[in-house]
């Protein structure tokens, strides 16, 4: 898709340019993995929005001002703000470092449970391996840009295949890098913002789920809630997957998983 034809999505007064990729300055390639806590009784943990739209409010009450809207599949780090038999309110814990922190005005809250109905689900750590004889080092991922496909392998056996969206080829600096890489960092939730240095594409995307970094400039695999154009280039360099596919890949691929990206 040509960058000029990007659709704009208006969310409670917030205009989001749909389609992005490499969002961060160079980061140290240290092996790190962000996991959930084992229970919501912990100080903080991660939840996923489980309804089509969930209002983000300025306080833990339906009387509080609506500041944003979350959509199904978004993931947030939270802590319990208020709890009763029929209601549970969470405070969203913002990252300590944001590219544009001035965009976040005050605290954000969501109802995890309301009128006895759960609107979010807590994320639990999982481990996925298809063949019992597979070792962590046997797993690798191949992305083919010409077909916009991703395959996951255990040794030489394809265990998963899906359509993806890689970087736009029509704009300088947006292409997904070709070569061999390793997954060196995993985060359950990332707040992605732009424009990036040297670019003018404005975006503001909290709660991006199931993020796995494979380059020092910030290229990742991640879930995508703002478009469903998988099978054609769409991003600033990242590999966009559906939320369902990104979740599977996140729990299947350990740190150090080899990534091969071909033309």
What attributes does this structure have?
263 residues, mainly beta, L,D-transpeptidase catalytic domain-like, SH3 type barrels, 2 domains, 6-stranded antiparallel sheet, 5-stranded mixed sheet, disordered N terminus
Q: Could you explain how this protein is built, in words?
A:
Strands 10-9-8-7-4-11 form a six-stranded antiparallel sheet, with no helix packed on it. A five-stranded mixed sheet has the order 3-16-17-18-19, with helices on one face. The chain has a five-stranded mixed sheet with strand order 14-13-12-20-15, with no helix packed on it. It folds into two domains: 3-33 and 126-262, L,D-transpeptidase catalytic domain-like, CATH 2.40.440.10; 45-122, SH3 type barrels. With 263 residues, the protein is mainly beta. The chain is globular, with a radius of gyration of 18 Å. Strand 1 and strand 2 form a beta hairpin. 4% of the residues lie in helices and 41% in strands. The two termini are 18 Å apart.
Gist?
This protein has 263 residues and is mostly beta strands. It contains 1 helix and 20 strands.
The largest sheet has its strands arranged as: 10-9-8-7-4-11
Radius of gyration: 18 Å
| Topology-level CATH name of the largest domain | L,D-transpeptidase catalytic domain-like
Number of domains: 2
Largest sheet: 6 strands, antiparallel
Whole-number average pLDDT? 86
Tally of DSSP β-strands: 20
Helix share of residues? under 10%
User: Mind telling me the CATH class of the largest domain?
Assistant: Mainly Beta
Estimate what percentage of residues fall within beta strands. 35-45%
């Amino acid at each position: 898709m040509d960058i000029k034809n990007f659709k704009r999505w208006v969310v409670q007064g917030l205009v989001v340019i749909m389609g992005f990729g490499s969002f961060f300055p160079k980061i140290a390639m240290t092996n790190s993995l962000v996991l959930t806590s084992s229970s919501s009784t912990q100080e903080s943990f991660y939840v996923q929005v489980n309804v089509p739209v969930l209002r983000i409010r300025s306080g833990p009450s339906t009387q509080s001002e609506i500041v944003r809207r979350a959509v199904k599949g978004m993931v947030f780090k939270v802590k319990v703000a208020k709890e009763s038999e029929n209601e549970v309110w969470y405070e969203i814990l913002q990252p300590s470092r944001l590219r544009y922190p001035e965009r976040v005005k005050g605290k954000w809250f969501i109802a995890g449970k309301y009128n006895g109905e759960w609107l979010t689900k807590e994320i639990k750590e999982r481990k996925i391996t298809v063949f019992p004889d597979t070792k962590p080092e046997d797993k690798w991922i191949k992305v083919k840009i010409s077909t916009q496909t991703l395959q996951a392998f255990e040794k030489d056996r394809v265990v998963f295949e899906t359509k993806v969206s890689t970087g736009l080829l029509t704009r300088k600096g947006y292409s997904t890098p070709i070569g061999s890489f390793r997954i060196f960092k995993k985060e359950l939730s990332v707040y992605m913002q732009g424009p990036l240095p040297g670019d003018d594409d404005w975006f503001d995307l909290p709660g991006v789920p199931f993020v796995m970094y494979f380059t020092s400039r910030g290229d990742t695999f991640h879930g995508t809630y703002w478009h469903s154009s998988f099978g054609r280039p769409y991003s600033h360099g990242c590999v966009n997957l559906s939320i369902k596919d990104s979740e599977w890949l996140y729990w299947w691929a350990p740190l150090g998983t080899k990534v091969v990206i071909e033309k």
